[in-house]
Design a protein that fits this description.
This protein is α/β, with parallel strands linked by helices. The protein has a single domain (6-172), classed as Rossmann fold (3-Layer(aba) Sandwich), CATH 3.40.50. It has helices at 12-29, 45-52, 105-115, and strands at 6-10, 36-41, 60-66, 81-83, 93-101, 121-129, 142-146, 152-153, 169-172. The strands form two sheets. It has a six-stranded mixed sheet with strand order 4-3-2-5-6-7, sandwiched between helices. The chain has a three-stranded antiparallel sheet with strand order 1-9-8. The radius of gyration is 16 Å and the shape is globular. It binds inosinic acid (IMP). Residues 43, 98-106, 151-153, 157 line the site of inosinic acid (IMP).
Length: 174
């Protein structure tokens, strides 16, 4: 897809290289196990599908969808689950796959919610981390790239449901 008014922050090639490194780390860390990768819809879909194709051990996948919190819930960090998992995660090695950690509210909530379901382990991999905007302390276990406080689109991330299909990760410019 071609759009004007964009600046490439991370090219498709840079992302691919980094995704391979993350997949190699995950392969090593989970050797002998069969982790359940939980993709957070919709932004993480492309990252998850690229990531699993480079992971060399068996994995399962499932998806959750969560609502963005409104202004009133922003401080409480309450997130509404729009689509839940299709299975119990009790005793499983769970790896949440997210596109970006921004304020940290979404993942903070998701992590607590999933821990309460009794997994054997729970970690988080995010492609992107915008640490400048954190509202709660949140450290992903695996992170692709730290990025500056800019709104990014492409590689699954959207602005108003647009631009998810861009192969590069871009900053929209005027
Ligand atoms: P958090 O709860 O503030 O950490 O927000 C995480 C969610 O906000 C992500 O899953 C994205 O859906 C969205 N988000 C945050 N920053 C960006 C961005 O720069 N581009 C697109 N979506 C973003």
């Amino acid at each position: 897809m071609e759009i004007e008014n964009k600046e490439v922050l991370l090219s498709a090639e840079e992302i691919e290289e980094r995704v391979e490194v993350l997949a190699a780390q995950i392969t090593e860390d989970y050797r002998g196990k069969k982790p359940l990768l939980i993709g957070v819809l919709k932004g993480a879909v492309i990252f998850l599908s690229d990531l699993i194709r480079h992971i060399k051990i068996p994995v399962e996948i499932d998806f959750m969808a969560v609502s963005s919190y409104g202004a009133d819930t922003a401080s409480s960090g309450v997130v509404r689950i729009l689509k839940d998992l299709e299975q119990s995660i009790q005793g499983k090695d769970v790896l949440i796959v997210e596109d970006i950690v921004d304020t940290g509210l979404t993942l903070n909530y998701l992590r607590e919610n999933l821990i309460s379901r009794g997994p054997s382990s729970l970690k988080v991999v995010t492609l992107l981390d915008k640490p400048d905007r954190r509202k709660v302390v949140f450290e992903p276990d695996y992170c692709g790239f730290m990025i500056p406080d800019k709104f990014v689109v492409g590689y699954g991330l959207d602005f108003d449901e647009n631009y998810r299909q861009l192969a590069d990760l871009c900053i929209l410019t005027d």
